[in-house]
Amino acid sequence: MLGPVILAASRSDRMRRLISAAPVTKQVVDRFIPGETVADIVPIIEDLTAKGLELTMDVVGEDITTPEQATAARDAYLALIDHLKGLELGEKVEMSVKLSMFGQALDGGHELALANVRPVVEAAAAIGTTVTLDAEDHTTLDSMFAIHEELRKDFPQTGCVIQAYLFRTEADARRLAESGSRVRLVKGAYKEPAEVAYQQKHEIDKAYVRILRILMEGEGYPMIGSHDPRLIAIAQELAHKAGRKLDEYEFQMLYGIRGEEHLRLAAEGHRMRVYTAYGTDWYGYFMRRLAEKPANLRFFLRSMVSKG
Protein backbone atom coordinates (compact mmCIF):
# COMPACT_ATOMS: atom_id res chain seq x y z
CA MET A 1 0.00 0.00 0.00
CA LEU A 2 1.38 3.39 -1.00
CA GLY A 3 -0.44 5.36 1.68
CA PRO A 4 1.96 4.51 4.55
CA VAL A 5 4.96 5.17 2.31
CA ILE A 6 3.64 8.64 1.43
CA LEU A 7 2.85 9.39 5.06
CA ALA A 8 6.41 8.45 5.99
CA ALA A 9 7.65 10.80 3.25
CA SER A 10 5.55 13.60 4.77
CA ARG A 11 7.90 13.53 7.76
CA SER A 12 11.10 13.47 5.70
CA ASP A 13 13.03 16.73 5.35
CA ARG A 14 14.81 15.31 2.29
CA MET A 15 11.52 14.52 0.55
CA ARG A 16 10.16 17.92 1.53
CA ARG A 17 13.09 19.63 -0.21
CA LEU A 18 12.85 17.36 -3.27
CA ILE A 19 9.12 17.77 -3.81
CA SER A 20 9.11 21.47 -2.99
CA ALA A 21 11.81 22.08 -5.59
CA ALA A 22 10.01 20.20 -8.40
CA PRO A 23 8.84 22.76 -11.01
CA VAL A 24 5.42 21.13 -11.35
CA THR A 25 4.69 20.99 -7.63
CA LYS A 26 3.15 24.43 -7.27
CA GLN A 27 0.52 23.95 -9.96
CA VAL A 28 -0.49 20.62 -8.41
CA VAL A 29 -0.50 22.01 -4.87
CA ASP A 30 -2.77 24.80 -6.10
CA ARG A 31 -5.40 22.18 -6.82
CA PHE A 32 -5.70 21.50 -3.08
CA ILE A 33 -4.43 24.75 -1.53
CA PRO A 34 -5.71 27.71 -3.57
CA GLY A 35 -3.74 30.48 -1.88
CA GLU A 36 -1.01 31.48 0.56
CA THR A 37 -2.59 34.56 2.19
CA VAL A 38 -5.98 35.72 3.40
CA ALA A 39 -6.11 38.10 0.44
CA ASP A 40 -5.64 35.12 -1.90
CA ILE A 41 -8.44 33.17 -0.31
CA VAL A 42 -11.19 35.80 -0.02
CA PRO A 43 -12.20 35.50 -3.73
CA ILE A 44 -12.43 31.71 -3.25
CA ILE A 45 -14.71 32.18 -0.25
CA GLU A 46 -16.92 34.60 -2.15
CA ASP A 47 -17.11 32.32 -5.20
CA LEU A 48 -17.98 29.15 -3.29
CA THR A 49 -20.56 30.74 -1.02
CA ALA A 50 -22.19 32.38 -4.04
CA LYS A 51 -22.65 28.86 -5.43
CA GLY A 52 -24.54 27.74 -2.33
CA LEU A 53 -21.60 26.02 -0.65
CA GLU A 54 -20.28 26.50 2.86
CA LEU A 55 -16.64 26.36 3.93
CA THR A 56 -14.36 25.39 6.76
CA MET A 57 -11.04 27.21 6.60
CA ASP A 58 -7.68 25.70 7.59
CA VAL A 59 -4.47 27.67 7.89
CA VAL A 60 -1.93 24.98 7.03
CA GLY A 61 1.11 24.30 9.18
CA GLU A 62 1.82 21.71 11.87
CA ASP A 63 5.58 21.64 12.47
CA ILE A 64 5.55 23.97 15.46
CA THR A 65 8.74 23.85 17.53
CA THR A 66 8.56 27.06 19.61
CA PRO A 67 5.91 28.93 21.62
CA GLU A 68 6.45 31.91 19.33
CA GLN A 69 5.41 29.84 16.31
CA ALA A 70 2.30 28.73 18.17
CA THR A 71 1.43 32.35 18.91
CA ALA A 72 1.94 33.20 15.24
CA ALA A 73 -0.49 30.41 14.29
CA ARG A 74 -3.07 31.85 16.67
CA ASP A 75 -2.58 35.29 15.16
CA ALA A 76 -2.99 33.90 11.62
CA TYR A 77 -6.44 32.59 12.55
CA LEU A 78 -7.36 35.85 14.24
CA ALA A 79 -6.40 37.70 11.05
CA LEU A 80 -8.61 35.31 9.06
CA ILE A 81 -11.54 35.97 11.39
CA ASP A 82 -11.01 39.72 11.04
CA HIS A 83 -11.36 39.37 7.26
CA LEU A 84 -14.40 37.10 7.58
CA LYS A 85 -16.10 39.68 9.78
CA GLY A 86 -16.20 42.06 6.85
CA LEU A 87 -17.77 39.43 4.58
CA GLU A 88 -20.70 38.91 7.01
CA LEU A 89 -21.13 35.25 6.09
CA GLY A 90 -21.74 33.94 9.61
CA GLU A 91 -21.78 30.18 9.97
CA LYS A 92 -21.37 29.68 6.22
CA VAL A 93 -17.63 29.93 6.85
CA GLU A 94 -16.25 28.26 9.96
CA MET A 95 -12.67 27.28 10.84
CA SER A 96 -10.80 24.03 11.41
CA VAL A 97 -7.73 24.04 13.63
CA LYS A 98 -5.03 21.50 14.45
CA LEU A 99 -3.94 21.85 18.05
CA SER A 100 -0.40 20.91 17.05
CA MET A 101 -0.27 24.36 15.42
CA PHE A 102 -1.10 25.94 18.76
CA GLY A 103 1.77 24.24 20.60
CA GLN A 104 0.20 20.99 21.77
CA ALA A 105 3.45 19.00 21.30
CA LEU A 106 5.65 21.44 23.22
CA ASP A 107 6.46 21.34 26.94
CA GLY A 108 3.25 22.22 28.74
CA GLY A 109 1.59 21.82 25.38
CA HIS A 110 -1.92 20.98 26.56
CA GLU A 111 -2.25 24.22 28.52
CA LEU A 112 -0.45 26.20 25.80
CA ALA A 113 -2.74 24.88 23.05
CA LEU A 114 -5.84 25.65 25.11
CA ALA A 115 -4.61 29.17 25.87
CA ASN A 116 -3.87 29.82 22.18
CA VAL A 117 -7.03 28.32 20.71
CA ARG A 118 -9.47 29.93 23.14
CA PRO A 119 -9.11 33.47 21.67
CA VAL A 120 -9.72 32.01 18.22
CA VAL A 121 -12.91 30.30 19.37
CA GLU A 122 -14.03 33.48 21.13
CA ALA A 123 -13.39 35.63 18.05
CA ALA A 124 -15.20 33.13 15.81
CA ALA A 125 -18.25 33.18 18.08
CA ALA A 126 -18.25 36.98 18.01
CA ILE A 127 -18.81 36.99 14.23
CA GLY A 128 -21.44 34.24 14.33
CA THR A 129 -19.37 31.23 13.39
CA THR A 130 -17.43 28.46 15.09
CA VAL A 131 -14.32 26.29 15.18
CA THR A 132 -13.83 22.55 14.75
CA LEU A 133 -10.84 20.83 16.34
CA ASP A 134 -9.20 18.52 13.81
CA ALA A 135 -8.07 15.06 14.92
CA GLU A 136 -4.39 14.22 14.54
CA ASP A 137 -2.49 11.05 15.42
CA HIS A 138 -3.86 8.87 18.23
CA THR A 139 -1.35 10.05 20.84
CA THR A 140 -2.86 13.57 20.76
CA LEU A 141 -6.53 12.68 21.05
CA ASP A 142 -7.03 12.61 24.82
CA SER A 143 -5.65 16.14 24.97
CA MET A 144 -7.80 17.24 22.01
CA PHE A 145 -10.99 15.83 23.53
CA ALA A 146 -10.22 17.44 26.90
CA ILE A 147 -9.70 20.83 25.22
CA HIS A 148 -12.89 20.31 23.23
CA GLU A 149 -14.83 19.61 26.43
CA GLU A 150 -13.37 22.67 28.13
CA LEU A 151 -14.17 24.98 25.21
CA ARG A 152 -17.72 23.71 24.95
CA LYS A 153 -18.45 24.97 28.47
CA ASP A 154 -18.48 28.50 27.08
CA PHE A 155 -18.83 27.78 23.36
CA PRO A 156 -21.05 24.68 22.99
CA GLN A 157 -21.00 24.93 19.20
CA THR A 158 -17.28 24.02 19.11
CA GLY A 159 -16.88 20.91 16.94
CA CYS A 160 -14.41 18.06 16.88
CA VAL A 161 -13.28 15.34 14.49
CA ILE A 162 -13.24 11.57 15.00
CA GLN A 163 -11.47 9.02 12.81
CA ALA A 164 -13.12 5.77 11.73
CA TYR A 165 -9.92 3.74 11.49
CA LEU A 166 -9.20 3.94 15.23
CA PHE A 167 -10.56 1.18 17.47
CA ARG A 168 -11.53 3.71 20.14
CA THR A 169 -13.77 5.80 17.90
CA GLU A 170 -17.07 3.93 18.35
CA ALA A 171 -16.89 4.64 22.08
CA ASP A 172 -15.91 8.26 21.40
CA ALA A 173 -18.88 8.64 19.03
CA ARG A 174 -21.34 7.36 21.65
CA ARG A 175 -19.98 9.85 24.17
CA LEU A 176 -20.06 12.75 21.71
CA ALA A 177 -23.46 12.12 20.08
CA GLU A 178 -25.27 14.38 22.51
CA SER A 179 -27.55 17.34 22.02
CA GLY A 180 -25.70 20.38 20.70
CA SER A 181 -22.54 18.53 19.68
CA ARG A 182 -20.97 18.91 16.24
CA VAL A 183 -18.89 15.92 15.14
CA ARG A 184 -17.07 15.42 11.84
CA LEU A 185 -16.43 11.78 10.95
CA VAL A 186 -13.49 11.03 8.63
CA LYS A 187 -11.69 7.82 7.75
CA GLY A 188 -8.31 9.02 9.07
CA ALA A 189 -5.13 10.21 7.38
CA TYR A 190 -2.23 9.38 9.72
CA LYS A 191 -0.01 6.33 9.83
CA GLU A 192 -1.30 4.43 12.86
CA PRO A 193 -0.06 1.08 14.26
CA ALA A 194 -2.14 -2.07 14.04
CA GLU A 195 -2.51 -2.04 17.83
CA VAL A 196 -4.80 0.99 17.67
CA ALA A 197 -6.24 1.16 14.15
CA TYR A 198 -7.75 -0.89 11.35
CA GLN A 199 -5.29 -1.29 8.48
CA GLN A 200 -7.50 -2.56 5.65
CA LYS A 201 -9.84 -0.37 3.62
CA HIS A 202 -12.84 -2.68 3.96
CA GLU A 203 -12.43 -2.71 7.75
CA ILE A 204 -12.23 1.07 7.85
CA ASP A 205 -15.30 1.43 5.63
CA LYS A 206 -17.34 -0.89 7.85
CA ALA A 207 -16.24 1.01 10.95
CA TYR A 208 -17.17 4.27 9.25
CA VAL A 209 -20.74 3.06 8.67
CA ARG A 210 -21.09 1.76 12.25
CA ILE A 211 -19.91 5.07 13.68
CA LEU A 212 -22.01 7.12 11.29
CA ARG A 213 -25.09 5.21 12.43
CA ILE A 214 -24.27 6.11 16.04
CA LEU A 215 -24.00 9.79 15.12
CA MET A 216 -27.16 9.84 13.00
CA GLU A 217 -29.19 8.12 15.73
CA GLY A 218 -27.76 10.43 18.39
CA GLU A 219 -28.83 13.95 19.30
CA GLY A 220 -25.87 15.89 17.89
CA TYR A 221 -25.06 17.31 14.48
CA PRO A 222 -23.13 14.86 12.26
CA MET A 223 -20.68 16.14 9.65
CA ILE A 224 -19.87 13.49 7.04
CA GLY A 225 -16.28 13.92 5.89
CA SER A 226 -15.98 11.66 2.86
CA HIS A 227 -15.64 11.70 -0.93
CA ASP A 228 -16.71 8.06 -1.26
CA PRO A 229 -19.95 7.87 -3.31
CA ARG A 230 -21.02 4.69 -1.52
CA LEU A 231 -20.56 6.21 1.93
CA ILE A 232 -22.36 9.38 0.85
CA ALA A 233 -25.34 7.30 -0.29
CA ILE A 234 -25.29 5.32 2.96
CA ALA A 235 -25.19 8.58 4.95
CA GLN A 236 -28.30 9.81 3.14
CA GLU A 237 -30.06 6.54 3.89
CA LEU A 238 -29.10 6.61 7.57
CA ALA A 239 -30.21 10.23 7.87
CA HIS A 240 -33.59 9.34 6.34
CA LYS A 241 -34.05 6.38 8.69
CA ALA A 242 -33.15 8.57 11.66
CA GLY A 243 -35.76 11.14 10.58
CA ARG A 244 -33.22 13.90 10.09
CA LYS A 245 -34.07 16.96 8.03
CA LEU A 246 -31.59 18.24 5.44
CA ASP A 247 -30.33 20.95 7.80
CA GLU A 248 -29.67 18.49 10.63
CA TYR A 249 -26.44 17.12 9.18
CA GLU A 250 -23.94 18.12 6.51
CA PHE A 251 -21.43 16.75 4.05
CA GLN A 252 -17.83 17.92 4.00
CA MET A 253 -15.28 17.42 1.23
CA LEU A 254 -11.87 18.81 0.43
CA TYR A 255 -11.33 21.72 -1.90
CA GLY A 256 -10.06 20.40 -5.23
CA ILE A 257 -11.65 16.95 -4.97
CA ARG A 258 -14.98 16.07 -6.62
CA GLY A 259 -16.04 19.68 -7.14
CA GLU A 260 -19.03 18.67 -9.25
CA GLU A 261 -20.28 16.50 -6.38
CA HIS A 262 -20.09 19.51 -4.07
CA LEU A 263 -22.46 21.39 -6.36
CA ARG A 264 -24.75 18.40 -6.88
CA LEU A 265 -25.31 17.86 -3.17
CA ALA A 266 -25.88 21.57 -2.58
CA ALA A 267 -28.38 21.68 -5.46
CA GLU A 268 -30.30 18.84 -3.81
CA GLY A 269 -30.68 20.93 -0.68
CA HIS A 270 -27.93 19.35 1.40
CA ARG A 271 -25.57 21.42 3.47
CA MET A 272 -22.25 20.95 1.69
CA ARG A 273 -19.12 22.37 3.33
CA VAL A 274 -15.80 22.57 1.49
CA TYR A 275 -12.65 22.11 3.59
CA THR A 276 -10.41 24.83 2.19
CA ALA A 277 -6.79 25.19 3.27
CA TYR A 278 -4.39 28.03 2.61
CA GLY A 279 -0.94 29.14 3.71
CA THR A 280 2.73 28.67 2.92
CA ASP A 281 3.52 25.62 5.08
CA TRP A 282 1.60 23.26 2.81
CA TYR A 283 3.83 20.18 2.64
CA GLY A 284 2.33 17.97 5.36
CA TYR A 285 -1.25 18.75 4.30
CA PHE A 286 -0.45 18.08 0.65
CA MET A 287 1.23 14.73 1.33
CA ARG A 288 -1.73 13.48 3.36
CA ARG A 289 -4.04 14.34 0.47
CA LEU A 290 -1.85 12.19 -1.79
CA ALA A 291 -1.85 9.35 0.74
CA GLU A 292 -5.62 9.37 1.22
CA LYS A 293 -6.61 8.70 -2.36
CA PRO A 294 -4.69 6.92 -5.14
CA ALA A 295 -6.27 9.19 -7.74
CA ASN A 296 -4.61 12.19 -6.10
CA LEU A 297 -1.20 10.53 -6.36
CA ARG A 298 -1.82 9.57 -10.00
CA PHE A 299 -2.78 13.18 -10.74
CA PHE A 300 0.50 14.40 -9.21
CA LEU A 301 2.68 11.83 -10.98
CA ARG A 302 1.03 12.47 -14.36
CA SER A 303 1.66 16.16 -13.93
CA MET A 304 5.32 15.58 -13.09
CA VAL A 305 5.78 13.36 -16.14
CA SER A 306 3.98 15.70 -18.53
CA LYS A 307 5.83 18.80 -17.27
CA GLY A 308 9.18 17.20 -16.46
UniProtKB/TrEMBL annotation:
Pfam families (UniProt xref): Pro_dh
Pathway this chain belongs to: Amino-acid degradation; L-proline degradation into L-glutamate; L-glutamate from L-proline: step 1/2
Top EC category: oxidoreductase
Gene3D superfamilies: 3.20.20.220
Domain Proline dehydrogenase: 45-299
Keywords, alphabetical: FAD, Flavoprotein, Nucleotide-binding, Oxidoreductase, Proline metabolism
Requisite cofactors: FAD
Keyword Transferase appears in the UniProt entry: no
Catalytic reaction equation(s): L-proline + a quinone = (S)-1-pyrroline-5-carboxylate + a quinol + H(+)
EC number of this enzyme: 1.5.5.2
Protein name, UniProt field: proline dehydrogenase
Species classification: Bacteria, Bacillati, Actinomycetota, Actinomycetes, Kitasatosporales
